Amino acid sequence: MSEHRRKLPQTPPPSGRAAARRGGQQPTPPPPAGRRAAGGSPLGSPSGTPTGSPSGPVGPPRPAGEPYQGRAAARRAAQGRGGGRRAAGGSGGPGGPGSRGPAGRGGRGPARPGKKRFIDYPRFGKEGWRHWVPSWRQVTAVCVGFFGALIGVVGVAYATVSVPNVNLAATAQNNVYYWADGSQMIATGGENSVNRQIITIDEIPKGMQNAVVSAENKTFWTDKGVDPMGITRAFYNMARGGETQGGSTITQQYVKNTRLDQQQTFSRKFKELFISIKVGATMKKSDIMAGYLNTSYFGRGAYGIQAAARTYYGVDAVKLNASQCAVLAALLKGPTYFDPAGNPSIDPSATAANNLKNSSERWSWILDQEVKDGRMTAAERAKFTKYPMPEAPKKNAQMAGQIGYLVDLAQHSVINKGTLTQDQLAKGGYQIYTTFQKSKVNALEAAVKKVQKQYIKPGGKHVSNGEDMDKFVQFGGASVNPKDGAIEAVYGGTDYTKHFTNNADETGAQVGSTFKPFVLAAAMTHGIRDPKLGRVQSDDSRQKVSPDSWFSGKNKQQIMDYNGKPWYNNDGQPWYQPNDDGDNLPKVTLRTALDKSLNAPFVQLGVDVGTDKVHDAALAAGLVASSQNALNDYQNSVTYSIGTSSPSAIRMAGAYSTFDNHGVQNDPYSVTKVVHEGQVIYHHELKSNPAFDANVADTITGMLTDVIKKGTGTTAQLPDGRPAAGKTGTTDDNKSAWFDGYTPQLSTSIVMFRRDDQTHTDKAGKVLNNPFLKMYGTGGAAKIHGNSFPAQIWKDYMTTALNGQPQAQFQQPSGDVGQVVWGNVKSPTPTPTDTTPTATAPTTTPMTTPPTSPSWTPPTGPTPTGTPTKQCFPWDPSCNSTTTPPTPTDTATTPGGQPTRHTKGPTGG
């Protein structure tokens, strides 16, 4: 072979510390005969390049006479000279000296690390996705480690939890309620600490055990005490931030009952899970059943089956029959909605009638389930056809008078806000600070009792058609601070221990004409619709009205749709709106219509604006729609605008305070803060909502001020000329009467009605409806109006409540709102004034049907007679005279025929 073929490739000399180390190594001895050289070429080859090597020469050949030191030494020499310990692209290039890239080890692939890693991840020597996929050994190791750790945690948790002690469970403390000034009102709520008695399984009737098993946990006697699906569902709901669900087995419910910490957290659920497992494994089923029934809350402050038996049926638990047991088992689903006495203070929908329906249906279902499960025979089930009505609630003596209503209202507040659950309140230990002012609560109660003592005398003195008209008379009231919505006083009824329903909350009594200010707010904010533009219109295309807009005030006025066509009721009949007491005024301004509480103008105005806008205005002011108060029944009901809904006195006082507060709405509230174990767990935050433009609100306040000065509310005038604004309300068939009013410092609502609200059932157990009763003749009055007893109570209370406070003035409107609109009456064409001395009085065309009441002279002054020097007509915007213009003559006849009466419609007030 030629000499130039044996010449080594010319490569740059190695450099750096690695090269220095290699330079100091001993020469490699020659390999034995037949061995390959360290560079990979056959022994004796004149070239140091392996055959087929793509990387070029690996290194110089071993010098002659150099001893061979083995394969390891050869590999080390090759690595030292050929690279593989430097990053790719380093000195020597790929595969060359210093290379650590893919061409390391002479260009035949990645080199192994110098020191093996304990965990080979990401995996060495793998490319692409295999580089990141763990080996089966790694997966196995991780799984074994995880399950080993889990078993360890489970073992420790199981060993450290203890089985509940039923004698220590459900220990209660009192809840302490405070007046607004910080003084203590009452300490209560821990009744269960004494209204509770542990009894053995032998004293718990078999019927009670069967009822709860069939209703709550059919597999109780055979299961392990834990429902995995229920636990998973609870954790899942908590993770989503949704409503949590309790354990679905009786064992889990028993464990939950014994836990003082009722916070819905992962740690508590985790502990309860292991306690339930341990209870299921170590306790007898009969002991679990006894523990569950001894610690369950049945409502009315009763913890345990013995207390429940005494509270609801007045007997010991052992004497309960299977039918009574089914009623008590139904309570375990939630006494708020299954106590037949009702719990409207907790939820307005939990009325006595609704709860009795819920309870009777579940009672029947539980008995049927017992038959289905083989725990009761069909013959025995056939004996229980009548619902066993529990006894009426017996109230704690310290809750008598108004205190019980105040406590219920505060409890309702913290439960509805999600601060506490009913069970947590029952366990006690909370300090609840309220907004109630003791002096005002006492003043409101005294004002009601004054009217009751003077006029309402049950027993036959005021009788109409053989009916005692003073029986079942009830009052309710609420007083709200307009600046922040604090409820400063309520009157819930005669006595909380005798009359359970809080009359300051929703009662079902329609509000009548006290709803009219919301119609005005809608008309001044949105305006009436243009007949040419269709039903749905933007505010820009509407015409906003002013208090001096004109409408027909005729009695039995035919109501027209916004487009001028007759409005028809659900029976296809045109609607003729009557006024209260038959008042008949052909044309009136809205200001006058509000003063006299005429219905026809406001029904027509509501149609022109749209009852949906009226509804929106009522909600913006602070009313809240519920399934009970008919505030959502605004579609296809023209009488909605005159108060067919039945919001509470609290909400009406709050909504009127929005006008008082210049259009800014604050939700009524009764609790300022809640403290538990020294920590404030709730603090009220003021959240104000702009409802109406301040000019609109102040304009309506001015109109309501006129109602008290010269309209239907004169009975409510406060002494010493203190400014006040308000509105009367009387409903159809005289079934309720209201007075709502305010001063700059306080807004108060008073309601009066007749109703026997005790729940009744017939012989078959069917719930009987308890309707509102008429008040013709009540208190010796031919008819009860809002300006009679309600206005008198309002005046007496406000006089006392505001005694010593300055006479603050209402803020005047900043300008005019809207325009003078001629609603369902035609704007007359002005006639030139005759100035000749011999002019005779103009002749008017008489009405073919005379009005049903004498003509009314506006209270602003007499109608001018003769020829005035300057006279202003409503259609003359340039005239500034304060002289009241004459009322234009109406020559139209009253529509004939009998009007179709709207059964829900109030008649004024």
Provide the spatial order of strands within the biggest beta sheet: 2-1-3-13-14
Query: Number of DSSP helices?
Result: 24
CATH superfamily of the domain at 175-416: Biosynthetic peptidoglycan transglycosylase-like
The averaged pLDDT comes out at: 78
Largest sheet: 5 strands, mixed
Percent of residues in β-strands:
5-15%
Top-tier CATH class of the domain at 175-416: Mainly Alpha
Question: How far do the termini sit from each other?
Answer: 130 Å
Strand tally is: 20
Low-confidence stretches: 1-9, 32-59, 81-109, 242-246, 260-266, 830-904
* Annotated CATH architecture of the domain at 175-416: Orthogonal Bundle
Helix content: 25-40%
- The whole-angstrom Rg is 44 Å
Structural class: alpha+beta
Shape: globular
Instruction: From the 3D structure, determine the CATH topology of the domain at 175-416.
Output: Penicillin binding protein transpeptidase fold
Summarize, please.
It comes from Actinacidiphila rubida. The chain is an alpha+beta fold and 909 residues long. The protein contains 24 helices and 20 strands.
Give an overview of the whole structure.
The radius of gyration is 44 Å and the shape is globular. Among the domains are: 70-129, no CATH class; 175-416, Penicillin binding protein transpeptidase fold. It is 30% helix and 9% strand. It is built from 24 helices and 20 strands. A hairpin with a 5-residue loop joins strand 1 and strand 2 (184-188). It is of the alpha+beta class and 909 residues long. The strands form seven sheets. The chain has a five-stranded mixed sheet. Residues 1-119, 531-552, 712-732, 825-909 are annotated as: Disordered. GO terms for molecular function: penicillin binding; peptidoglycan glycosyltransferase activity; serine-type D-Ala-D-Ala carboxypeptidase activity. Residues 531-545 have a biased composition (Basic and acidic residues).
